[in-house]
Amino acid sequence: MINNDANVNATNKKGTSVFMYAKTPAQQNKGSVNILELIANAGANINHLDCSNKSVLDYVIDNNNIDLRNWLISKGAK
Hints:
Blueprint lengths: L17 H11 L5 H8 L14 H7 L3 H9 L4
Helix pairs in contact: 1-2
C-alpha cells in the first residue's frame, strides 16, 4: 500500500492513526517493530495525537511495554 501512495497518516473518526493501529502487533510480538519501522520510514507522524489527546507512546506506556517505549523514544516519540 505504501508503494501505491497510501496515506500513512490517515486516521479514523476517533483520530486513531495507521501508526497507532500498527503498534498492536508490535506490542503482542516483543521486539517486532518491523511494521512500525516501515510506516515511520514512509513518513508517519509518530507523535500524532488522537481525539483523547494521546499519542502512541502514551498507549504503550499505559500497557507497560518498556521495550516498545524505549524504541519509540529512540525514534523521537514524545
